[in-house]
Amino acid sequence: MNKVILIGRLTRDPEVRYSQGDNPIAIARYSLAVNRKYNSNNGEQTADFINCVAFGKSGEFAEKYLQKGTKIAVVGHIQTGSYTNKDGVKVYTTEVNVEEQEFAESKNSSGNNDGGFNPAPRQEPAASGDGFMNIPDGIDEELPFN
């Protein structure tokens, strides 16, 4: 089985190209900085920098919504390969082919230092008499849709 699950931040904006032909598909390449579980000997956080490639709709999503610093979760598989560069040297590659990608934090929490958890006090909504509950004021930002 070849399955990879990563959570990290983009180290740069995705580089997107489109294939040639009648039905061009998006090919997005980006690198994720994924923190290691343990710190270095001097106590500093260390990370691995993992190259990812997303095809088709995933590539279009990356082009439209992802940028340097965005924290995302990626599911995919590792693919290795090799090629000979212009100097005649064989270069080996390892990358994650993205099958799924999604945001790992809200847009607002990316700038906060509190880890993105800043709950507002909850108010119990009152029943409106028609079988539905009224949405309390100020909760619009917490709804997953508008």
Describe this structure in words.
6% of the residues lie in helices and 40% in strands. With 146 residues, it is mainly beta. The chain has a five-stranded mixed barrel. A hairpin with a 5-residue loop joins strand 5 (71-84) and strand 6. Mean pLDDT is 83; it is low at 112-125.
Q: Biggest sheet, strands in spatial order?
A: 1-3-4-6-5
Report the sheet-strand fraction. Answer: 35-45%
Along the chain, the helix and strand elements come as EEEEHEE
**Poorly predicted segments:** 112-125
Question: Looking at the structure, what is the overall shape?
Answer: extended
What does the radius of gyration come to?
A: 21 Å
How many helical elements? 1
CATH architecture of the domain at 4-105: Beta Barrel
The CATH class designation of the domain at 4-105 is Mainly Beta
* Main sheet attributes: strand count, strand direction, barrel closure: 5 strands, mixed, barrel
Which class of secondary structure composition applies to the elements?
mainly beta
How many β-strand runs?
A: 6
| Average residue-wise pLDDT | 83
**Helix share bin:** under 10%
Q: What is the assigned CATH homologous superfamily of the domain at 4-105?
A: Nucleic acid-binding proteins
CATH topology of the domain at 4-105, anyone?
OB fold (Dihydrolipoamide Acetyltransferase, E2P)
N-to-C CA distance: 40 Å
